[in-house]
Amino acid sequence: MIADDDPATVEILAYQVAKAGYHPVTACNGLTALQVLSEYQPHIAILDWLMPEMDGLSLARALRSQQNGCYVYIIMLTVESTKARLLEAFDAGVDDFLGKPFYEGELLARVRAGQRMIDLYDRLVERTASAQRLNQELCRLNGRLQEVAMLDDLTGLFNRRQAISRLVENVAMARRGRLQLSCMMADIDQFKQVNDTFGHLKGDEVLQRVARMISGCVRSSDIACRIGGEEFLVILPGMSSAQAMNCAERCRDVIHAAALPFQKNGLPVTISVGVAEYDLRMNTIDDLLGAADAALYAAKNSGRNNVKLHPQVDSAASLVAAASLVGSAPIADADSLQRPAKHAVDFGT
Question: Catalytic residue among 230, 231, 249, 277, which?
């Protein structure tokens, strides 16, 4: 853009830059120049210092105050040569000067210098945008990796590793605060027949539906996990065994009543559930999981599609027996529990 109140100067400047391959737009005063800048968004502005309505210095300040992502390289046309005036112009945002009278070679050299600055600025902007896009993609991938580390891909429930980690945390809180804690172990009955009869894709569909129904039957504070092929663990903080039994029965009823496609083929989808309540005399994660697992086997052996509770020791006696153990040693962290077969974490000593 070329802004000057002298039409002859504007015509000469426009001719010379156009001959060099640039595409000039012109303005006859500062206010018109602002409108031209907004409409055409040129990269280089050649401004006369002295113009009516708004001089070049005020126009430069206005440009710098409303930068909107596109940098404008400002060359000031001036007869001013005092250091104070030039410093004032630099402070206003001017990048370069072209003294009057000027000749073509100097004009084009300063325009080319401005073009190099604009090209450099554009490359920096692009690199910054690329870095931001890369950071966004890395954040997305990190979030996905975190999901993969925590969730079961098929059902979206917590995976086995996360189940053990959450169980350790909740047992530690229950032990410190003398809080109730129960868990239930659920297994889809005769699931092998589903895979053998209808194929593994339909089997995966059953797993997904059962997982959704279990999630829908428990509280938002409960922790539903898939810990094996067709086996699920639900951690129930603050629940007594009686309350956990009610929750397990609700899950069993909902799944039994669901209109899954296999019901029409005489192959109902049901679950068996074992329930256990945490007891202070339990010394390892395996004690609690083993209790729930034993109750699950009892449910299976009783004809499937039912819920069994593992026998609990008297809670009052348990509190007395373990009172001296509470707080004597911290619960082991979750990373130490990831062993293939056992999770023998000592809760008390």
Answer: 230
